[in-house]
Amino acid sequence: MLTRRNFVLSLTALAGVGPALACPAPKADGTSHGILMLNADCGDPGNPNVFEPAILHINTGDSVTFVPTDAGHNSASKRGMIPDGAEPWNGAIDERLTIEFNVPGIYGHICVPHYEWGMVGLIVVGQDLSNLKAAKKVRHPGSARKVFRSLLKELEA
Ligand SMILES: [Cu+2]
Fold first, then answer.
1. How far apart are the first and last CA of the chain?
2. 90 alpha carbon to ligand 1 midpoint, in Å?
3. Least C-beta-crowded within 10 Å: which of 34, 101, 150, 152?
4. Does 3.40.50.720 match the CATH number of domain 23-156?
C-alpha cells in the first residue's frame, strides 16, 4: 500500500536528499547474532518498522540479541509459530533481549505494537523446517499476514 507519506518518503530517498539513515550491520560472531529493531528499513525508507534481518538462519544452541536500535519496539514469539518444546518469549518495549535457541525449527516473532503493520520476522534454527506447515496455518491481522506469508515462502524457495 502506497500511502501519501510513504510516497513522499520514497521520492525523497530517490532524490538522495532524505535524512541519512543509519544502516548498521547486525553483529554476528559465529554463535551470537543480532536482529535490529528499526523504525525504517535501511534499504527502503518507505517500509517502516522492521526487524533487520527479517529472516535469520542460525545453528542450534546459538543466541540472538534483539537490539533496540530505534525506540518503541519489542520482540515476542508468535504463538503457534515456534517448535514444540521451545520456550515462548515476550520482551518489554525497548528491551535488549537475548534468547538462546536450543530447539531446532522455525520461530516466528513479532513486535507487539507494530504487529498488524507487518513488523514480524523469522528465525530458522538448525536448518529445521519441520514446523513450516504449522507455522503457515497461523492467522495474522493486517499487513502481518502478507509479510509472514512472503517470509515463509522464502524459506520454501
Ligand atoms: Cu515495532
1. 25
2. 13
3. 150
4. no
What are the sequence ranges of the domains in the chain? Answer: 23-156
Residue 40: strand pairing partners = 48
Distance 85 CA to ligand 1 centre (A): 27
Query: Cβ distance 79 to 67 under 8 Å?
Result: no
3-class DSSP assignment, residue 80: coil
Dihedral angle over CA of 123, 127, 130, 133, nearest 10: 50
Residues near ligand 1 ion, CB 5 Å cutoff: 49, 73, 111, 114, 119
| Ligand 1 centroid to residue 40 C-alpha, Å | 10
If one compares 27 and 96, the residue with the highest pLDDT of the two is: 96
Ligand 1 mean position to 73 CA, how many Å? 4
Q: What is the 105 CA–ligand 1 centroid distance (Å)?
A: 24
The Cα 80–Cα 139 span in angstroms is 9
CB 122 within 8 A of CB 56: yes
pLDDT digits (tens, 9 = 90+) for 106-152: 999 999 999 999 999 999 999 999 999 999 999 999 999 999 999 99
